[in-house]
Structures are given as C-alpha cells and as structure tokens.
Amino acid sequence: MLSLEVLHMKFLASPAVNRLKKYSQKPFDLTKKGALNSRRIETLQGTLGPLTLLYATDRVDDAVLDSLWQLAEERGALAKMRAMQSGQKLNKIQGVPSENRRVLHTAMRDFFSDRNPSKHALVASTKAFEEFVKLEQFLKKRSTQKYHTIIQIGIGGSYLGPEALYKALEKYQVQNRSARFISNVDPDNTARILKEVDLKKTLVVVVSKSGSTLETKTNEALVRKAFVQKGLDPKTHFLSVTGKNSPMDNPKAYAASFYMEDYVGGRYSVTSMVGGVLLGFCFGIETFKEVLKGASYMDKVACSEEKQTNLPLLSALLGIWNRNFLHYPTFAVIPYTEGLARLPAHLQQCDMESNGKSIDKEGRQVPFCTGPIVWGEPGTSAQHSFYQWIHQGTDIASIECIGVKQSQYGYDEQIEGTSSQEKLLANLFAQSIALATGKKDANPNKRFHGNRPSRILLTKQLTPYSLGAILSYYEHKIAFQGFLWDINSFDQEGVQLGKKLAGEIIDCFKGTSAPKEPIKSYLSALEQL
Ligand code: G6Q
C-alpha cells in the first residue's frame, strides 16, 4: 500500500502548489472599489494571432500568476506538449494494460505551415496530406457535383466536433449544399432526417474509427434501407471515414473511403477526414484548409515559452486555479455568437472524456480534483435561463465567454441607436463585470456577492481561420491540464462498462439470452407499459 505521502508526490507536492494553496485562502477581491481598473484589464490580457484572452475578472494577482507559471514549469507542461506534438507515446498508463498510442491530431493540419520535424509527426502529417489530396480530388469529380446534401452518420468524436464546426461555418456554405447529422440510435431522429432530404441528391458519410460502433452501424443499416426502398444503389451514395482494415474499410460497400489512424483520438479528430469530408463538401476545400491553418497556428502557440501569449497554457492554468485551489466544480463556456452554439457540447466531450479521470499515469488514485463539469449555451439567451444561478446560486461556476467583434453575415441595423452586434457585446462585457464586482444592497434578494470568476476570449470575426484557432486553443488547454495533473487525457475506459451492459440487454431483446436480475426487473417494468 502506498503511503499518502507518495500518492501526493506528483501534483500536490510541487512547491508552487503549496504557495497557491496559501494564496487561495485570500484570493484577489474583485468586489473591492477600483479593483477592476484599467491597469488590471490592460495587464491581464494576452493577444496572439486571431485571439485575445481577457482574464482580469479571474481572481488572480501577480503572485498567483507567478506561481501558476512556476507550476507549469515544475510539471514540465511545455515539454509534454512538445513531446505530444512530436509523436511520443503519451496515451498510456504505466504498468497496466492500456492503449499505448501516440497522440498526433496536430499532424492532421500542419502540412500548410512548418511541419513538426520529428519522424513520427512527419509520417503522420504526410499520410494526412494524402487523405486531404484524395478529398480534394473527390470533391472536384463531376459525379460529386450532383449532390446537394451530405448526411454524416457517426457518434461521439465522430459527430460532435464536425457538427460544432459545421454550425460555425454555415455562412461559408457552397450554394445548394448542406449537411445533416445522424448520431443517436434514436429511430425518430433518423426518420425525421430522411423526411427532410432528397435521397437522390444525398451523399452519406459514415464515420467510425473502429467501424464497429453499435449506434453508427445501426443507423447506417437503417439509412441504407431507405435508399434501397427508393430504388437507389447505396454504394454510389455512401462514403466511409474509418481506420484501415476496420469492418468499414470495404470498397464493395462505399464509393470512396478516407482513413484515420489510431493516433488521432475521436474527440480530437475533427481536423482529420472525420470533419474534413463534410466540411469540404459543404464549404469547399479552401475553407477547410483555412480551418486547418488556424488550428495549426495555435498548435505552434501552445509550444511557445511566451507566458503572456501561450493562451492555451494560460487558460489551462487559470482553470487549475479555479478547480484545485478555489474548488469550483464546473466550467461554463458561453459563446456570444450563435455560430458557436454547439461548441459547448463538443468541449463537453473533449474535456470531460479527456480529463474525467481518477488515476494518474502510473495507475494511482489521485488525491485531488481533475476535470470539471463542462457546460454552456450561447449568450445572451443563456442570460434568460441559467444566469440567475450563475449570479446568485449557492455554487460558483468558472466561466469563459467567447465574443466576436464583427458579425459573420454583416446584416445588422441600428435599432434604438445601436446595432445588434453592439447589444451582444454590451451584454457580454456587462455580465463579466457584474459577476466580478457584484452589488451591495440592503435587500438580500437584490444582493450580488460578486467575486464570481469569468474570462473572455475575443476574436475579430468567426472565420474558418479563427475557428480553427479556437478549436486548437481548447484542445490544448485540455491537454495541458491533463499534463499538469499527470493523468492520461487520451483514453476513455470510463465509457466501456455501460456499453458492455447494453450489449447484454440487447441480447435479452434478441432472445439469445435470458434476463437476470437486475436487468429482468427493468424489462418487466417495460412490459407493464
Ligand atoms: C472519442 C471517443 C468516442 C468515439 C465514439 C465513436 O474520443 O473515442 O467518442 O469517437 O465512440 O467511435 P468510432 O469512431 O469508433 O465509431
């Protein structure tokens, strides 16, 4: 049995942690008169490329920030990020059977900038570029031109990222091209989508790295049947994105197949062909290329030593401060742009599947909190739903709002003296200030305690390039937090147990096995309906 001392060795024993613990007894008071002054706001911000991070409304001061950077140094955060991007096998747990893989999603997008020179990253990047060229050629083909709609069938990492990016880029749609997503194994969802589209003009891209996911296989079969019922040959309409040699790597069943490798985790795969086929089809290859360039730019930023401007690391450290020292259990991402409406759902998977872990990389229980609950919805709508809780509830959430200076479509008017975009931004800044400073009032019902932390990620406009940068910023923020906690952010064993049990219940529905307790009682409750 390991002593508590040894268990604490890694994260908790670092000298910076001890200092941060001390500072957390009396964190910076944002409610003090003049605390949120222009000097603080100007100093506590970082700009690099298309992104600016404003964090004056986090409860940090110079001493805390110095210690957080020291923590990053003590934990070798940058060295680990560089090792990841160079293709070292970071996806593993020492001493127990685990995935034991490289983590190379950054190589899916570096072929338009400086490639990472390490051997493994170069090999991965070269393969990814081959897939990119294959996609470019497929999109140029005359036979592809007749399609107006693409349905992506896939779940988890094969769905959430592509949907978030698709929604963000709708403005860039090639004429007459749109996408639908079938992810859940809910027949009503599939039926609804099949009603909306003209199958003759529809491509279906089935995305599954393993090629064996229950939901995806079932939905694919259901959609294939609909094509057959309409007298259409599914083979000419169906594409696949999958691992080489998976059950879906089958030229007899698909008009074309694109490949992904095991070193690209599902939730980090949107810049591979997992997102590429649909994004290239709907928005054109150049738009997809811009997304890759923006993401790759931020990949390089994540490796830089510049404290003020390594935004993913900065954000990871602020998150650690809020999570481990101020003990806030949740992290809300609130985009003040409808274009990013599905980003919180994507980040929920990316963050919670990556960092919802309880053991470190040597298989030992960690004696501190890891990844927070991630949630969010676009503002200002969110202000009319859960902001009451955020301002006056008994729990405190740590918040990151995303703001854009200019709208995407440019259709806006002065209504009562301001544009809609100005109203949106006014609300974004107002909320951040109100959460920080609070408001004294003799009436307890109208009292705001303040000191509720938030920060703002700003960009000039939601473009393919800035979107790529935002995506990569969050991916690396999550990876950095995993490095700091010394957990494996790249596997997802926690989803296996429920899947296995569902398989047993499916066998009961099939009649190939008899239900035992407690399954039996659940099935009899169903029978009684
Ligand atoms: C993500 C996970 C998971 C995965 C889905 C779909 O990181 O690995 O969400 O993406 O389970 O898996 P397939 O792509 O293999 O169908």
Structure notes:
The protein has 529 residues and is an alpha/beta fold. The protein has 3 domains: 4-90 and 302-491, Glucose-6-phosphate isomerase like protein, domain 1 (Rossmann fold), CATH 3.40.50; 105-293, Rossmann fold, CATH 3.40.50; 494-527. It has 20 helices and 11 strands. It has helices at residues 4-8, 15-24, 38-43, 62-74, 77-85, 119-140, 142-145, 160-168, 187-196, 214-229, 234-237, 273-283, 285-301, 311-325, 343-355, 387-392, 420-437, 464-485, 496-510, 519-527; strands at residues 45-48, 51-54, 149-153, 178-182, 202-208, 238-243, 256-260, 330-335, 373-375, 397-406, 454-461. The protein has a 6-stranded mixed β-sheet with strand order 1-2-11-10-8-9, with helices on both faces. Strand 8 (330-335), helix 15 and strand 9 (373-375) form a beta-alpha-beta unit. The longest helix has 22 residues, at 119-140. It is globular. 46% of the residues are buried. Residues 1-8 have low confidence and may be disordered. Glucose-6-phosphate (G6Q) binds next to loops. Residues 155-158, 208-210, 213, 216, 265-267, 353, 492 line the site of glucose-6-phosphate (G6Q).
- The name of the CATH topology of the largest domain is Rossmann fold
**How many strands appear in the DSSP assignment?**
11
- Span of the ends, CA to CA: 51 Å
Task: Give the radius of gyration.
Answer: 24 Å
How much of the residues is beta strand, in percent?
Answer: 5-15%
Q: Name the CATH architecture of the largest domain.
A: 3-Layer(aba) Sandwich
How many structural units, i.e. domains?
3
Assigned CATH superfamily of the largest domain: Glucose-6-phosphate isomerase like protein, domain 1
Mean pLDDT: 96
Number of helices: 20
Unreliable stretches: 1-8
Which strand order does the major sheet show?
A: 1-2-11-10-8-9
Which range best describes the helical content: under 10%, 10-25%, 25-40%, 40-55%, 55-70% or over 70%? 40-55%
Q: What structural class results from the helix and strand content?
A: alpha/beta
What does the overall shape look like? globular
**Hetero groups bound?**
glucose-6-phosphate
Q: Would you state the CATH class of the largest domain?
A: Alpha Beta
The main β sheet shows up as: 6 strands, mixed
